[in-house]
Hints:
Layout: E1 4-10, H1 15-27, H2 36-54, H3 64-96, E2 99-105, E3 112-113, E4 116-117, H4 120-127, H5 136-151, E5 155-159, H6 167-171, H7 183-199, E6 204-205, E7 208-209
Parallel strand pairs: 1-2, 2-5
Antiparallel strand pairs: 3-4, 6-7
Helix pairs in contact: 1-5
Amino acid sequence: LSSTFVWNSRGVIDGNALEDFALVVNLTKHIHVRSNAAAKAASSGGSSSKSSGASAPKTKPTSNGSAASTNATTGSSSATGSSGGVSHELEALAEHFPSFMWVVRDFALRLEDQGRKINDRQYLENALKPQQSFTSEAASRNQIRTLLSSFFRERDCVTLVRPAEDEATLRNLKNVALTELRPEFQKGLATLKSKLYASLRPKAVNGRALTGAML
């Protein structure tokens, strides 16, 4: 129901950070745009039309080859329909997902890509590019990258350095004024607030702002 989803992590966006995000991605398996009854009705309607078309010829095939050809065609049609249904469901889910903000705390890397300076958003996009590898672990992480990119089409990132250099201040952050923290941290925090406030908007369903009555 939120209009913006903020994911908070530490360090860098790497394989381990993506695996931590896997829980969120797996939750999408339990999210449905329409009710199960509506989905079954649509599915049965499609099956009914397909079966009626297939049952039109009542005569028994005169050759085994002909029967095999009919079964292969029917199977192909069913597989295509199933794939199309999954794709349509993912497309529908993406339309209802909020914007996404990945906040990386205690960030210590230079924002560079092959010697060229990049911004926080480009850093996120680079991290979401599929990695070439033949291991099952890499394949799992690439799937997370793909799903995250598919569901959260509107996404951004903000990197924050450690708020203070010395450990004593870090252990007592709740009693330290913001103005006493590192200037780089203050600047990053201001950027985060600016981006969040700029992206906030009423949650909408089918083009209409969501209200309590609609819920």
